[in-house]
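Weekly structure sync, notes
Attendees: PL (lead), two postdocs, one rotation student
Agenda item 3: pending single-chain targets
PL asked that the sequence for the first pending target be pasted directly into the notes so everyone works from the same version. It is reproduced below exactly as submitted, 101 residues in total.
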Amino acid sequence: MDLVRDFHRGAVRLHVLFHARSEDVFGAAITIEIARHGHSVSPGTLYPLLHDLEAAGDLTSTTVVVGGHRRRCYRITPQGRRTLESCTAALRELADEVLEP
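Predicted structure, written out during the meeting:
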């Protein structure tokens, strides 16, 4: 098990939930946003992650047509908000301990 890979994957999942909290997200846009923070995520990694979050009940999706192209948009669910809050609290506690001067 690769701890660094798992940590980054978890960070990307939290990032998706964080952004889906305030607006619908879709693959291409969230890939760009995540890249701004130094995470390179391929479509082959991102889309299964989005599907997993949806299957877990943290996201819901709809298909919309934008510029003649179909796009799947994801929105956070009430359960996803609780997941995000719980993970944020755990991350804050861990950061306070691990990054303590």
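Discussion points:
- The mean pLDDT is 91.
- The beta strands are 59-66, 69-76.
Action: rotation student to compare against the earlier draft before next sync.
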